Amino acid sequence: MAPNVGGAKGGAKGAAKGGKSTNLSSASRVSKSAKKDGPKRPPPKEQKTKPRTANENLKKKKKRVYTEKELDLPELNQITPVGVIKPKGKKKGKTFVDDAEGMMTILAMVNAEKEGQIESKMMKARQLEEIREAKKAEAEARMKERKNKFDDVKDSIRQKKKGKGGDKAAEPTSIKDSISKPGRSKKKTVAFA
Amino acid sequence: MGVGRRMKKQGPPAPLDESKITMLKKRKAGGAEAPPKPAPAKRRRSDADEAVSKKDAPKKKKVNGAAPKADSKEPKKQPSVTKKAVPVPMSDDDEDMEDDDDEFGDLDGISEGSMDSDDEVEGLSDLEDDNSVVDSDEEGHTRGAMFSDDEDSDAEERLTAANIEGLSRKLDAEQQEEEEAAEQEMQEAALQTNIAAPDVFADQTQQGLAPDLQLLRQRITDTIRILGDLKTLGLPGKSRTDYIDLLLDDICTYYGYTRFLAEKLFNLFTPREAFAFFEANETPRPVVIRTNTLRTNRRSLAQALINRGVVLEPVGKWSKVGLQVFESPVPLGATPEYLAGHYILQAASSFLPVMALAPQPNERVLDMASAPGGKTTYMSALMRNTGCVVANDASKPRAKGLIGNIHRLGCKNTIVTNMDARTAFPKAMGGFDRVLLDAPCTGTGVISKDPGVKTSKNERDFLAIPHMQRQLLLAAIDSVDHASKTGGYIVYSTCSVTVEENEAVVQYVLRKRPNVKIVDTGLGSFGSPGLLSYMGKTFDPKMALTRRYFPHRENVDGFYVCKLKKTAVTPVAKSDDAEPRSKGPKKARSAPSAASTDDESVDKTPIVDENGHAADFEGGAFSSFEDPEDAERIARAERNRLRRKGLNPKGVLNKPKKSKVSVSEKTSETATPSQKEETEAVASKRTSNEPKSEKKTVVKGDKKQVTTEKEEKKTAAKGKVEKKEKKSAKKASK
Amino acid sequence: MRSLTEEETRTLFTKLASYTGRSLNSLITPAEDGSQSVFRLQGSRVYYVNKDIANLSVSFPRDQLLSMGTLIGKYTKTGKFRINLTALDLLAQNARYKVWIKANGVMPLLYGGSVLKAHVARFSEDCPENAGVVILDSNDVPLGFGVTARSSAQIAKLDPTSIAVHRQADAGEYLREEDTLFTT
Lengths: 193, 734, 184
What we know:
heterotrimer; A: mainly alpha; 0% strand; B: alpha/beta; Alpha-Beta Plaits; nine-stranded mixed β-sheet; four-stranded antiparallel β-sheet; disordered N terminus; coiled coil (chain B); ribosome biogenesis (chain B); transferase (chain B)
């Protein structure tokens, strides 16, 4: 309040002629608080009219512009995706590669990458191939084993048949007995235990 | 490998003919070849013996009508046959044959050399190799084609030196027979025409709704024959125009042309030739493909296609890249070779403008109307993918096909644009070394391809299209760099045969652009020269250097090719030349050429009237026309005009004082103004030329008055305007 | 029409490199006669064109310039690059892997089919699975390109009717895709 009044006074001093008007203005600002001086003041009409046309008032009306941060909007509601922040101060637009060197570097990078990929692919393929080979070898070995086994069995059967003519009955039974007996005995022991 | 053998057909003319005959023979299964000569003679004779019944008459006359055609073919065939007969017995040992081969092979190698960019020597050696291994290595197909043909005429083949005499005697006899037949025919013709001549007009009256085509055709041939010798054959009461009228009507009904177009085309030729032309428009032209030298050469392409069972041979001596296809078991537009861009289906006629243009490597060339790209890709191939070809087309959908062809054929030096060439060039780009303008046209040369032309083109088209062609050609000329070291050429071509679209257009630009001149097309003797005069118009004497092609003469589409050379800059546009060109540096050299244009414009000045002249005419220039009656009428018209506009009602009332007297004499005082007028007019007629000068002055005075009034009004209006302006200014200041 | 950005160049080269390999260098180095070719973007389409021609073509309005030099392909909306059939020449010249097919495989390919094992006449050595490969006929005429379905070693073991190369583009597209091949 106090500086305001002082200001008004200063204005009055500066412009001797317009003293009244400045006074009025000052009064208008402090209209309610300074009601006591009321009778001197002109009617409130002027109060209304003047501020509307005046520049200062227009300025006052101007709304404050909030930055996006101040608004504190939820981030999902934006046009630009959340993660993308445009670097400030950087030149707008695209960067073209029109010189051979630039192209070459890019090409070299790409080539290296591709080569690497192909290399790795080939490596992988080779490894896979090796594994496959190994598996195959293994499988073959197993097959061989099995076949051998089978052959053995077949041979044995054959021998059995041959043996039938001679002492065929005695041998198998004896074998059976020899095999079965220890098993049974063991089982028994386990069972009892 | 067999190519060498096949290609030699392309060499000297005689073997080419021979081969053609073998082709014919092959296609028209063996036996058909021998009979035709004796057979017609027999038939004619029998016909002559028979009483002339109505049904037989047409046949007979047809034969007669076809006679000229047959005659034209016969001399071609005959020598070839005799030639064939002679060398065959000679070549009883193989060495002779091989010599022959080499001879042709040489030629072949030369012609191929430039195309393949092979060394000539290489080509030769290749050929020699071919010959050495020819028997073992040659593909069965080609060889089969050659020899099986020969074996068709086995009887001839077996002839050796021993019975050559017999053969020649036989030939002589044949010839004699033919001659006799021809004579007889002539006599018959004379006889018939005497009978037929009256028929020609008699039939016309009988003509019903559905005309009998055979009769019609007969009458056409008859009329043509009569027109050929009107004095002896024509009816006494009938003039040439009557016959031509009849003929045109018949042609319209027989071939389905509009009368307008039929007349236009008919006027280009003699009646006989016109008939041949119309006939040729009914048969398709041979299918021709162009080798894409960017991807392959003709030899290997031909080999590849032959392997697919295609029957073909070089299109002619005039082209090194064309192959004429006789029959094909596979669709030519979908073979792997086609898709790989080894060839393009292209009419023989559209080779010609590009050959005339002869673009050189590293040039900048423009094709103003390029779709579907046959010519563009040919140019690109001739330039070996160097330099730059700008291919423009005004139609976007058509440009799509153009781009397809360009990519398929592997042309990498092209820019494809979609602009209106009339305005876009040289605005967007100029300074071309060569420009090809294959202008959009009415298509009267390709009626066999598009019969719609017969009916779709009207008078308007024949005004509008040449107009566009002129604009295009002017643009083409202005786009060329005259100072080009290698070029400076423009080729103008159309697939139309009419003079309006060809010579007339060229003549127009010669007048408009004195800095161009017609030069030789470089197409040699192929085609016929351009017309020097037509329907009372005479053209530049150099117009003979341009080339015309007709379906009935060259068996290609109707075509026109003109090559122009630009010698200097286009002079700065004159006042009547409403096309200021964007090319800047013209002032320096414009002086000499401008002088020549002056001559041109001087020619024009009497035609073009200016306002000042018109004013003069009122006073003096038309004085010679001032017959009294005219003056009277003019005065009356003027008066009427003024009165009708309400400008000078007095002009009526004041002037005819004498007429008023006459009116009073007539005692019609209550007459309405219109009646007054009439009476007035009558009176003025009576008074004839007495008041001439008076009237004029009066009229003029009136005019002056009017004008002054107008001026006053104008000034008043101006004042108002000024006031308004002032007001507005004040407002503004406020 | 403009030259490519770094990103676009990388995308393009990555794609091309899957077909061409090291010799891609020759595309961007000047030829012996000093002429150099460049890549140019017009709309979404990439053209490979002589530099002089590219410079000339700036005279024409963008919407009226339909094509220049050789069309390589186009960027999709998602930023990938799709090679067009028209790049075949380029690829064939610099191809890393090639497959030659027999006459009986030509027509199936041109009708848009894949290359079967039965059609394969010859295969480049050491070709891995899913590698870009140029397809040629027995006369060394390039007909298209594709991606190998198996490595060259495995293909030998396949049965005749199984697919050896997945087709990407073939010359038959000039007919089949006539309307869409060049629409911008």
